Amino acid sequence: MIDVAERNNVTMMGEGDRTIIFAHGFGCDQSMWQYIAPAFAKKFRIIMFDYVGSGHSDLNAYSSGKYGNFRGYVQDVLDIIETFNLEKVIFIGHSVSSMIGMLASIERPDAFDKLIMIGPSPRYLNDGTDYYGGFDLSDINELLDMMEMNFAGWASFLAPLAMNAPDSPALTKELERSFISGDPVIAREFAEVTFLSDHRQELSKATIPTLIMQCSDDSIVPIEVGEYLHRHLKNSTLCLMEAKGHYPHISHPEETIRDINQYLGVNLNG
């Protein structure tokens, strides 16, 4: 019998009849929600977790066979929902978790009430003149090669680009430490799964109301991607944030909380 709570290092906080699941992005763990999750704890039950291979999850549960595509990560989410008998959850996913949550909602729409996607992308690679994802294949291959040859160098290169908060060097260092804390082999496999994925075909199958939170200057996900998602996702709302970078929940927590709260229609201070 698999202990899902231990495998995914599930933590719970807060109170309320409605549940929010916070799902972290690539190279991170649940600690990245520390700047916004407490704001929702008075009105919601909060569930946070680490994907297998990240944070304090059970690394022994990792296998390339299971996690060599999105299916393993989707199953992690569905396992958590089933283990804790969750219904009508609000799923807040950062980056790659946006698509993981969407795929889980396609499989179990009854379990989801709303999806909130922070910096989402269905496809990071450019595809001719029809789709601009922000990266050419050569860019991704260089990134993967760098992870393999110089993991620390990769982390120190990507962190400032992704955070895009030159006035807050401590946040960039925090992200770099998060990147470097992971297992290099697992991190590279997760990166390959993430950056070479293409989930554009699944967008039409998604039915859950969705908030797309797109940063104004994101080196990982350009504005064109947020606009593409908005055009192809039913029941979607596009929120163009003033925040820059790929981690607004870290660099601009107040704006992130405000935009989520406005979408949910909840007075967090009441």
UniProtKB/TrEMBL annotation:
Keyword Hydrolase among record annotations: yes
All copies of domain AB hydrolase-1, residue ranges: 19-253
Pfam family, one: Abhydrolase_1
Alphabetized GO MF terms: hydrolase activity
Top-level taxon: Bacteria
Family matches, as PANTHER family: ESTERASE-RELATED (PTHR43039)
Family to which this protein belongs: Belongs to the AB hydrolase superfamily.
Protein name as it appears in the record: Alpha/beta fold hydrolase
Protein source organism: Paenibacillus dendrobii
